[in-house]
Structures are given as C-alpha cells and as structure tokens.
Design a protein that fits this description.
The chain contains 19 helices and 35 strands. It is α+β, with helices and mostly antiparallel strands. It has a 4-stranded antiparallel beta sheet. Helix 16 (671-685) runs antiparallel to helix 17. The longest helix has 26 residues, at 445-470.
C-alpha cells in the first residue's frame, strides 16, 4: 500500500524575520522569530488562527519547546523565558553566558538547555535553579535528556557525548561539523543531524546504526513522527525518511528550513527564512486549493533556480515544456513561471494585456555553470555582478554577503568586509586566507559557508573573552540578597472555625454551599500536610470560590479569609489563581481597598501584607505581583504613616519584591522604576529605624545587581543622589558594609 503523501494545507505569513523555532501543544502552535516576537496560534475550523502576539522580547529568539506540564520554554538571547499556554511570562531562568540554541522539556520540573557558551544546563523549574552544568563542548550545544538524568549533547566539533548526571560516560566523533539536533529514536537509541549534510541513527550505547544521505547542505532541524524522520535544512528541502534511511517523500520550499514540528493532527509544520510557516497534511479534506499548491511549487522552483548551482537535471525535467505556453493561463499580471526549453530552464512573465507568457531570459546558474552572481551593493561594495557572493551566517541566523571578483585584491576585499561588519582587523589575515582558498569555481557552497561561519564564531568568542577579562572583578558580600521572608505560622483549626462561623452569617449569594464548604475544608486540610505539600494538589475551585465569594465579604469578616489565603499562597496550587490574563488583579485591588478603609483594621492590613510577601514563593504568583507592581506601590505608599509592626512587614515586602525583580529581570518594563520610587518615598517620608533602612538599602542593591541593564539604569536614575549622600547612624558593621557595596555598585 502506497504511503500517504503530504500536501500543502495552509501558509501563514507569521513573521518579518526568520522563523527560527516552532512548537506545538494540543491545538496550539507557537512560532518564534529573529524579528524579536513570538506568536501563539490555535487550530480553528481546520486552520491555525493567531490568538496572541508576544512582543516583550528585546532580542532575537533562537529556540523553544513545549513543556511537559503545559506552557512553553523560549530561548531569548542567554535567558530562558517560561510562558503559560496564553503566552504570559511565568519566570526567567538565567545561567548561560550566550544565546540559548537548544531546549528540551524532560519532565514537569526538569528542563535541559544548550547554548553557544559551550555548555548545557539542567534546570529544576520548581526551584528556578540549575542542578547540573555540562561542560567540554565547542560553541553551540544541542541537547537531549530523560527523567533518569541521562543526557546526550553535541556541538560544533561534531562529538556526541553521553552523560549520567554530571558524569561523562562516553564520547564519539559522530559528525564532521556542528551537531544541530538530538532526538530519541523509535528504536530506543538516538538520532542526530548536522551541518555535514547527514542524519545518523545511533544505538543507546552510541554505536552507529544507519546514516541517512540525501540533503545537499546543512541539516538544521529534525523531528520523529511514529516510525518516520522528518528533516529540513539549508537546501530548502524537507525530507520524510523511513528508519532504514530511504526517503519516502521530499518537499521543496522557497527558502531555508530552520525548524519543523508535528501537531496532534499528524501534520508537518515548517518554519523558513522567509518568515512563513507552512502546514502540510495527508488529510485530503484539509488540502489547500490546487492553485495554492501549484503556486508554492512554482515559488520553490524559481527560488531554487536562483541559488548558486541552479537547478538539478531532475528538477528541470519536472518543469512544464514551452509547448504549454499557449494552454497555461497566468493568474495575475507579472506572475513569473519557469518552463523547460529542451533541457534548459527559462523564466517567463505573464502579461494580462496581451494574454500571453513573455520570455524574461534563461535561468542563470545551471549545475556546473560558472555564472556571475548579483550583489545589490552597500557602502563598501558596489552593486553589480561578482564571480562570488559568499553567504556568511552570523550568530543570529542573519546572512551577511561577501562579494568578490577574481583578480581583485584579497586584502582590499577583506578590509572592506571587516569595516562593514565591525570585525577586528586582527582577523584580516584569516579572511584573506579564506578568499585565497575558496575563489576557485570547484569549491562547494558548504565549504565556503562553513569556514566563514566558523571564523565569525571564533571572532565572537574572542571578543567575549576579552570583555570578560577587561571587567573589574569586585567581590560583593552583601548584594544581591536572595532570601525572601515568608509567613508560615498557622492555626488551621482556629482559622476553619472562624471562617465557617462567619459563613453562617452571610447572605445566600455570598454563603458557601455545602459542596463548596467540603471543597474548602479539604483545602484547609491540605495546607496542614506540610511534609507532603509538594505532592498534594488543592482544587482549582478554591481559587474560584475565593474570588467570586470570599473577597466580597465585608471587611469585618475578612480576617480568616486572609489568614487562609496567606497560607494558600505558599502552596503550589495557588498558581491557578494568578495565571491567565487578570493575574490575580481582584486580590491586589481588594488589598488596596483594605489599606485605604478608615478606620484602618491594623490586624487585617498585616495579614494582607503577609499575603503579598508570600506571593513571591512561586513563579506564577511572583510574576503576577510584579505585573501589578503599580497597584502594590500604591498599597505601600498608602501606609507611609503607620505603626512599627506594619513598617517591618512593608520593609520585608519591598525586599521580597526586589528579589523577585532581580531573579526574573522584572518582567514589568517599569518594575525597577516603580519599586525605586516607593523605596525613596518611604525613606524620605520620616525617619525610619536602622533595620528598616538596612533592608530597603539592600533592596536597592538587588536592583543594582540585576543582569538587566534597564533595571539597573532605572534604579540608579531615581536613587543615586539619595544613596550616595545617605549616612546610617549605627555601629552594625554588616549594615555599613552593605551600604558601601550599594554605593559602589552605582559607580562601576
């Protein structure tokens, strides 16, 4: 029985830059691009429709993966953003020094990442920290891992490593060039792809089983679907393979294939350099129109013909002959199609006015032809035809062009290229040597591109090393301070008794039903199971009851409500309340109302502030409170003139918030500005005790030690003058040294 063939189902004009990575989960599709955006799509009526634009990224996005427990991980420069299924940020993992280029979700709380810093990191997401770091690679690292803490890594040197935790078990020379992807094979071993144009199937012990040959250039991406391998690369091909290494189907695309994915409908989804995402299916009911399918085939043929090396003989023979010129009707004015004149491809343009195809010319660059290449020109190189136009892919996946004519000065061309790209002249000779070696027509495109790519990577690594050596090394002892204060004391029996006593006094609209009472009782019991709290879930209904009923009780009845919720925020199930678009806004607005109600209920205010402090315990909750920091700032400033116990709570809250901003780079563009303003206003309003001053100064120090430049600059702009003139009247040497470090952090 003949295997079903994939055909175009949908074309999505997703991005203005290269589509570097895509992930699927359920009915969702996440696309990430060099245009600094990510987009979420949902399958509706057999078509993907965009539902969310994620535009808070500042740099290129290189990698993404769907997480086992829902949501996504996105590699943004040297950081990893954790997103929920609606695209909302949950937290940031930091530990890599360069771009994150590979991500795999191992389990609910385990993630492995590879970076151009030549390391792989295994993360415990529940703790937001790294637990293992795997070294010994060269440049970009591809990764794979399983729940038994077995890991497979590979990098630029083509060496494949197996690990058990941080212990290296075995290394093999797997490829001749950079390893781009590592996956678990259906046979129980592994499968890899590389810039050396091959895909290889390995046993669990890293013994080679099969080599797949068929790609004509770098193989960038790969996915496993049942007993098939789907691969794509720089040759603009997606090949569907059987596990014996035989190709089952080949799909030609108009541009470089950077990423492929498989969805729940068994569709193949392809992301390319032209910013488009294309969906291919075997479901005849979801095929695109014949015109769309033929249009893609023509676009791919025309694009392929423009590549260096032109069209293959097989591709030329597939073109319609010139005898079809009179029977094939163009769809629009200016449409370009290729026709075969004997064994030669020719380009024709449709003229609507004369209703015929008009010859544009021969397709340049047939196989073996020594054709000229056109360069559009820039400040350093004139526009025109050159003997060579070398492709140079930088770290961001952006292609830079190096034009050269035979007989020209190697040094002049190399110097102009260095000036244009900002390369150090230290690398001038390397570029000259490259041109000398690669300016004969017999060199393959893969050799040319690979050497320039490696040279660029070596330059980037050297620059980073020089910058690191040039930095002044200062050993800070007191900042950043990262131990949050949480309020964990509990009297669940008293809490439960008071809560249900007040519930009996409520109107029918606000009173808990018998079922809701049972749910809430079970939730209270779960909070008491401290030893096994991480494995015990509290029903989502608790969060719904809290918002829809309990928060609407009059303030005089809210003490047991906030006493419960203070403890609930320490439980991982509370993240349900803070997920979604509103991110717990009702809670923050309710607390704002409480602190501004006269006469003030001091005990209730303190419980509410303890609740806010406890919000920094879990990722989703922490991101929510930072998202609503403007409301929290207003809560703080509403309590400037208050008693000592409340001041202590406020100082702990501010310190917790600074830790949240430091650990997650803010997530709110104005987080540092808002908190800095609150701190200075709080300190300037009246004389505070030494302990309070010390905590708030430490909070400023946390902001100044943030890896994010924007956070540091916002804080320094607002607090510099105050901090530099601040004198603390104390003999406590720790407090004085901390102040000294904060002052110093603003001067370097």
């Amino acid at each position: 029985m003949e295997a079903l063939q994939y055909k175009l189902s949908q074309t999505i004009a997703a991005h203005n830059g290269i589509v570097r990575s895509i992930s699927t989960q359920g009915n969702e599709l996440l696309t990430c691009s060099s245009d600094k955006t990510a987009k979420l799509y949902e399958m509706k009526d057999n078509q993907y429709q965009q539902v969310t634009l994620i535009s808070f990224f500042e740099k290129y996005i290189y990698a993404t993966c769907a997480r086992v427990n829902g949501g996504y991980a996105v590699g943004h420069d040297n950081q990893i953003y954790l997103l929920d299924n609606e695209g909302n940020p949950l937290g940031i993992l930091e530990g890599h020094d360069q771009q994150v280029c590979s991500l795999k979700s191992i389990s609910e709380n385990l993630l492995i990442s590879g970076s151009w810093d030549a390391t792989a990191i295994i993360w415990d997401i529940s703790q937001m920290k790294q637990i293992y770091r795997l070294n010994g690679h060269k440049y970009g690292v591809a990764v794979y891992g399983d729940e038994n803490l077995n890991f497979i890594t590979g990098s630029q040197d083509g060496i494949l490593h197996s690990w058990s935790k941080e212990t290296k078990i075995k290394s093999v020379q797997a490829h001749k060039d950079i390893i781009r992807e590592i996956l678990l094979s259906p046979l129980g071993g592994y499968i890899t792809c590389s810039n050396d144009e091959t895909i290889k199937l390995w046993s669990k012990d890293l013994e080679l089983i099969q080599t797949f040959l068929g790609h004509k250039s770098f193989v960038f991406t790969m996915k496993i679907h049942m007993d098939q391998v789907i691969s794509g690369g720089d040759d603009r091909l997606v090949i569907i393979w059987n596990l014996d290494g035989t190709p089952q189907q080949t799909i030609q695309l108009p541009d470089t294939v950077w990423t492929v994915a498989i969805n729940n409908f068994n569709d193949i989804i392809i992301g390319t350099s032209d910013g488009k995402v294309r969906v291919f299916t075997t479901d005849k009911n979801r095929f695109a129109t014949q015109a769309e399918i033929e249009g893609l085939e023509q676009e791919a043929s025309l694009s392929n013909a423009k590549q260096e090396g032109g069209m293959s003989e097989e591709e030329v023979q597939k073109l319609p002959g010139i005898d079809k010129l009179n029977t094939m009707i163009g769809k629009k004015e200016g449409e370009i199609r290729l026709f075969r004149n004997g064994n030669k491809p020719e380009a024709y343009m449709w003229s609507a006015a004369s209703s015929n195809w008009q010859l544009i010319g021969d397709v340049i660059g047939g196989k073996g032809a020594n054709s000229k290449k056109f360069f559009p020109g820039d400040k350093y190189f004139e526009a025109g035809e050159y003997d060579h136009v070398f492709d140079v892919e930088d770290d961001h996946g952006i292609t830079k062009l190096l034009p050269y004519n035979e007989g020209e000065s190697f040094y002049d061309s190399a110097e102009k290229f260095c000036l244009r790209e900002g390369y150090s002249k230290h690398y001038l000779q390397q570029i000259v040597n490259f041109l000398k070696k690669n300016t004969s027509f017999g060199q393959s495109q893969r050799q040319k591109k690979s050497e320039l790519e490696t040279m660029k990577e070596q330059y980037a690594q050297q620059q980073i090393l020089q910058q690191q050596q040039a930095k002044q090394q200062i050993d800070f002892q007191y900042i950043p301070y990262t131990q949050c204060t949480y309020y964990e004391n509990m009297n669940l029996q008293g809490l439960s008794k008071k809560l249900f006593e007040f519930n009996a006094q409520m109107s029918e609209e606000l009173k808990l039903t018998e079922k809701e009472t049972l749910i809430f009782n079970k939730g209270i019991e779960s909070l008491g199971q401290v030893q096994v709290q991480k494995t015990v879930n509290i029903e989502n209904s608790v969060s719904i009851i809290f918002i829809q009923k309990l928060l609407k009780w009059d303030a005089q009845y809210l003490l047991p409500v906030y006493d419960f919720f203070r403890l609930f925020c320490l439980h991982h199930s509370s993240e349900q309340l803070f997920a979604g678009l509103e991110k717990g806004m009702n809670l923050f607005l309710n607390i704002f109302t409480i602190v501004n109600t006269q006469p003030i209920n001091a005990v209730l205010v303190r419980l509410a502030l303890q609740t806010l402090c406890n919000c920094l315990k879990h990722n989703t909750n922490s991101c929510a409170i930072l998202y609503h920091l403007r409301i929290v700032k207003d809560i703080i400033l509403s309590l400037l003139d208050t008693d000592e116990k409340t001041v202590l709570l406020l100082s702990n809250l501010i310190l917790n918030l600074s830790i949240g901003i430091y650990q997650r780079n803010g997530l709110n563009d104005q987080a540092s500005e808002l908190l800095s303003e609150a701190i200075i206003t709080f300190l300037q309003y009246k004389q505070r005790d030494v302990e309070t001053i010390a905590k708030l100064v430490t909070a400023i120090g946390n902001l100044m030690k943030s890896p994010a430049k924007q956070i540091r600059e916002q804080c320094k702009k607002i607090t510099f003058e105050f901090i530099q003139s601040l004198v603390i009247d104390t003999n406590n040497q720790d407090t004085l040294k901390c102040l000294e470090e904060v002052k110093l952090s603003m001067l370097i």
